[in-house]
Amino acid sequence: MKNRKNKKMFIVIVVLSGIMAPLILATEGDLFYFYSVFACFVIFFIYNQYKTQQFVQESQIQAERFQTAFSHIATSMFNNVLEADITKDALLGERCEQLTNLLQIPRSSSYSATIEVIAASMVQPEFAAEYKKVLSRENILACYAKGWDTIEYECIERSDMVHYAWIRIHIAIFWSELTQSLRIISYVKNIDKEKSERLNLEKQAKSDLMTEVYNKAATEEAIQKIFNESTKQDSHALIMLDIDDFKKINDTFGHIAGDRVIIETAKRIRHLFSLADIVGRIGGDEFLICMKCFKNMQEVENKIAMFYAEFAEFGINTTESYPLSFSIGIAIAHGGDTFEQAYKQADAALYYVKNNKKGTYAIYDNGQLY
Length: 370
Known about the structure:
The protein has 370 residues and is of the alpha+beta class. The chain has helices at residues 2-28, 31-77, 95-103, 111-121, 125-134, 137-145, 192-206, 216-228, 246-253, 255-272, 297-310, 339-356, and strands at 80-85, 90-92, 150-157, 165-176, 181-190, 235-243, 278-281, 286-291, 326-334, 361-365, 368-369.
């Protein structure tokens, strides 16, 4: 821009000099004065050209330094960097060819199509829908409209197409005056170690140290979450389980044997129920289970029968068999119910069993015990 301006100035000087020359010759009769003025203009122009070239060179050097520094930082800090023009739905930059080659899609693929392929082939299935939503053009445009200039998202992805790992995606959003379009630079960082450590800490905070199932507070929180996220049509069984005469086991066989009974009880409950169900230890020998979204009462009663069968011939130690007895109270809850309400009903059913016939179960449903 500046170089073009100087050329225009030079042309103006030459034209003015041509116009002024006859006047100077007519009045002064001396060419010396004219050429002196003309020479000054030429020297001024050359000097400006020199300074402009210096400025351009320095700008290029600075741009190269920035590009080198950015490339180094991106390579050392991030596992992948992707640029895209969101307005034009197009991939940009050097790295997009590496990505399209990895995904085995055409280099000319749109940004939206690339995100679809990444979600299908690289992202762990349980995160795929959310990944597409967060990185969609619609979401990025909406975030920018709200005044956001960054988006962060964490998920599990296999960046090498083989091994899954936790990643953090940082998306920088900006408006390009040069292209008059909205653009992004997406940085991907492997956080598997960091995430694993964090999840382990969270698990320890929520786990019962002896049995590794949920502790009391975490059990309540997890079950209430299930109730909150369910509808009235969803049925859940809240199962409160108590080891009968547990004190007698400790007194007869010792506390080590008693601890083993608690650990084995937790292990077999966890094995019997699905990963979607909640299992927690809420007291010394008391457990609480939330059997999520069961189909009918027969399904719940079959689980209880299987649990009793697990302990039909339980060896309290290496030399003696000791048939354990469990009293169980069951409450039927639905989406929108409170944990406190369901807990009281299960506790009432358990209390009924403990005072009438230990080693069996009772069900509290619609205000009735049976």
